[in-house]
Amino acid sequence: MNMTIPAGADAARAIEVLTRLRDQLGAAAVLIGADVPERNRNDWSTQPPTNPLAVVRPVDAAGVSAALRACREASLPVVPQGGLTGLCGGARPEDGWVALSLERLVGVEEIDPDSATMTVRAGTPLEAVQRAATDAGLYFALDLGSRGSCAIGGNLSTNAGGNRVIRYGMARELVLGLEWVLPDGTIVTSLNKMMKNNAGYDLKQLFIGSEGTLGVITRIVLKLHPQPGCTMSALCALPDYPSVVRLLNASRRGLGPLLSAFEVMWPDYWEVVTQRVGVRPPVAGAHGFYVLVEAQGTDEAVDGPRFAAWLEQFADGGGLADAALAQSVADTQSFWALRDACSEFFQVLGPHVSYDVALAVRDMDAFAAQCKAALLAQIPGCESVYYGHIGDGNVHLVAWVPGLSIEEQPKKRMDEVIYGTVRDFKGSISAEHGIGTAKKPYLSYARSPEEIALMRTLKQALDPQNLLNPGKVI
């Protein structure tokens, strides 16, 4: 059997241990060598696929524990995998590693309507979690464009954000309890359902956002909310960025807890989605900025007029160049189609590189202008467009040189320009996509030496053999 074996591991010993693990967990649970599926060789990052030694697919925490113990015995590095939708290489194995896939660790175990919680297995797709909550008359607030593919455990591993962070918070705010498996195979079960539980350290927070470097999440207690009774939305055109900030502040003040999304699109993004993707714009003419404001209420008869009155009051103050108020669910969906049209960029722009950064709200337009100019000046022909969840400090941008393949795109130079500009504005190189390997060289742009040293101390304490997703994040 011709396979790549990591340094420090013995080939014969590795095959012996994996064969024994297959006998323990079943033939479908351990696939070795040529039997490793193509999907487990990479995530959605632009890095090339690899050749993992094996993929292990347990169905419960005991299986995860057995896999980690076996790999530790054979000195085999392990990469946890969920839906493999990550963009930074966090779930991508290196040659010779073992991929620990949670694709069979799926299902909703319990919905407790009195506690407003759901207990779910980590490999369950996000869309299945959302659907189960809806079927129970409740609402799970985390939402991403990859909802049909991404796994809830992977969402927690990167502390995913999505479209409604401004109201419900990041993924970590939606978790009450966890079960996880440490690198030595120890299973820690803390499936807490209580909002208030200050009995010692809140250990689950160590593992949310750690990208599978400290432990493997296996089960989760999620916080649910009441199902919204109605959704109101408006697509607003504004003359300049100060007007955008005024609208954001007016939204927070006038809509209060009803405000669920505040999505901003720069003119360059708007031109691509309306002219090249072909999404019909609900407002006419060219403007400085475009904002999708959404609010979720409990009673259409009360909250609908309240939203309309709020928007009219802001317009009367001279803050809007134009606006379209949704009159139906179809209108709201058409507004969101503008914001979600970035999923069509590969078809209309060709190969490009996506970025996810965080900045203070006041700095976002200055960042976009400086970044766009620097990219064009330092990379001839480089184009870029900007959009994002401005209300929670998150800007997305897409950069590309027309006519180049994805392999030919000057990503390293783009990274240096974009993350260097983020550092100039004292922002974060990652708002919601994690670090993985793609952003690892720039971690010091957003974290102090003392913070990075403490991260390394935690890693050493929990994974002294450095076998769980080694080389990722730090």
From TrEMBL:
UniProt GO MF annotations:
FAD binding; oxidoreductase activity
- Short name of any one Pfam family annotated for the protein: FAD-oxidase_C
All copies of domain FAD-binding PCMH-type, residue ranges: 48-227
**PROSITE patterns tied to this protein:** FAD_PCMH
Q: Which cofactor does it need?
A: FAD
Which terms does the UniProt entry file under GO BP? respiratory electron transport chain
Alphabetical keyword list: FAD, Flavoprotein, Oxidoreductase
PANTHER family assigned to the protein according to its UniProt record, in alphabetical order: D-2-HYDROXYGLUTARATE DEHYDROGENASE, MITOCHONDRIAL
Family from the record: Belongs to the FAD-binding oxidoreductase/transferase type 4 family.
Q: What is this protein called?
A: FAD/FMN-containing dehydrogenase
Q: What is the lineage of its organism?
A: Bacteria, Pseudomonadati, Pseudomonadota, Betaproteobacteria, Burkholderiales
